[in-house]
Amino acid sequence: MAEITAAIVKELRERTGAGMMDCKKALAETNGDMEAAIDWLRTKGLAAAAKKAGRQAAEGLVGVAVDGRKGAILEVNSETDFVAKNEQFQDFVRTATAITLGTGSDIEALKDACWPGGGTVEEKLTSNIATIGENQSIRRGALLEVSKGAITSYVHNAAAPGLGKIGVLVALESEADTAALETLGKQLAMHIAAANPLALRGEDLDPALIERERGIAKEKAAESGKPAEIVEKMVEGAMAKFRKENALLSQLFVMDNKTKIEDVIAAAGKEAGAPIALRAYVRFQLGEGIEKKVDDFAAEVAAASGINKPEPVA
Fold first, then answer.
1. What pLDDT is recorded for position 292?
2. Across the strands, what pairs with 252?
3. Residue 77 DSSP symbol
4. Contact 162, 94 (CB under 8 A)
5. Is 253 helix (H, G, I), strand (E, B) or coil?
6. pLDDT at 200
7. Which of 156, 174, 229, 289 has a CA positioned 20 to 30 A from the CA of residue 269?
8. How is residue 94 annotated by DSSP?
9. Residues of the chain with pLDDT under 70
10. Residue 219: is it exposed, middle or buried by C-beta count within 10 angstroms (0-12/13-18/19+)?
């Protein structure tokens, strides 16, 4: 039997886009013959993943999973919203999110983790790309954990239990009754999904974002034509408002639009008979930050057929 070196496995992987273990198996099955191994992968539907790897994936699902005082959230992207309704894809996201409870935010560790039934998470993803027929990618994950208290989750626009377009995790630390914490946590998670705070506290906001907003506020204030000292006060007032509106604890609760979130938490702690601290939260919205490509389908068909797209009539 021909020796199967790491170099030949690497070459086969680069030529087909198939997973490392699949490439090793293909070469073993074909006695190291590269072309025969490619054909073997094609018959198994595994080489097809290579052609799909370059396609943009901005749809998909966000999954959440909670186990005791630990919670995980994961975003897995696909090319179209249609795939998000696919049971095979949903099962992958659900299972991968559960595995994230053990791997945390390290996506490479998640990809290398064992998949139930054999292989790795990355190999299962590659197989799904081939069988479902669309590019898919694991984009990001996060883990929250408390030593005492509760982790609660919420999914907005749910496609299935624990899977949807927006996922939220909330970490509450307290000696209070778990049921009370879960009720509060669910309310806070729903608020976070709707209000999209940018940080827990005003001082936690991204300094680069603060500077950008300050620059905008300065330009607006300068247009007023008022004295410099008044302009500076206007800028500081605008920045205070920005921090208040974008930091979770100072936001007004969406359920009554008058009570600050920090006061909602304090009142819940008083009712539960033990202080409650909101330690952290995570909010993933599907595709946020991905610049989606907008295709002109008519132009694409025309180009493929050699027909020029007609000029619009004035």
1. 56
2. 260
3. E
4. yes
5. coil
6. 96
7. 156
8. H
9. 1, 17, 43, 45-58, 290-314
10. exposed
What pLDDT is stored for residue 43 in this prediction?
67
42 — phi, psi (to 5°)?
-65, -40
| CA dist., res. 273 & res. 224, Å (int) | 51
Residue 157: which H helix or E strand, with range? none
Q: Residues of 259-286 as b/e, b for ≥16 C-beta within 10 angstroms? A: eebbebbeebbeebebebebbbbbbbbb
Give how far the C-alpha of residue 194 lies from the chain's centroid of Cα atoms, to the nearest Å: 16
Residue in this structure with the two tokens 């005082």, named with its chain if needed: 69
Distance CA 45, CA 41 (A): 6
Q: What is the distance between the alpha carbons of residues 42 and 24, in angstroms, rounded to a whole number?
A: 14
The structure tokens listed for 227 are 């004295």
**CA-to-CA distance for 311 and 95, rounded, in angstroms?**
50
Question: Could you tell me how many residues make up the chain?
Answer: 314
Spatial distance between the Cα atoms of 59 and 90, rounded to a whole number of angstroms: 13
Write down the pLDDT at residue 286. 93
> Which two three-digit tokens encode residue 51?
């052609």
In the block, tokens 């920090």 appear at 262
Cα distance between residue 67 and residue 257, in whole Å? 32
Output the six-digit token pair for 149.
């208290």
Closest CA to 197 of 276, 259, 253, 238: 253
Strand ranges (E), the chain: 59-67, 70-78, 136-145, 150-156, 163-164, 166-174, 276-285
Beta carbons of 259 and 167 less than 8 angstroms apart = no
For residue 160, give the 3-state DSSP assignment: strand
